[in-house]
Design goal:
71 residues, single chain
Length: 71
């Protein structure tokens, strides 16, 4: 695998980990409920943007190596 391909996979793995942490914060952390509606909306928008970014990275990775399942 080429260095830029390895970096792309590493970037996606890091993104997936950040998405997991944000998803857990939204779903489980009581602090989330104490935030203003605007802050909660922005966090949801942030998660959605991260998800779109993940989809792009996934498709780019598919160009050089098929992955088993899309998270």
């Amino acid at each position: 695998m080429k260095p830029h391909e390895e970096r792309l996979i590493a970037e996606r793995n890091e993104l997936l980990e950040r998405m997991k942490k944000l998803r857990e914060f939204i779903a489980e952390n009581p602090i989330y409920q104490s935030l203003s509606q605007r802050e909660r909306d922005l966090l949801s928008a942030q998660y959605n943007a991260m998800d779109q970014y993940d989809n792009i990275l996934y498709e780019r990775i598919q160009l050089f190596t098929p992955l088993k399942g899309h998270n």
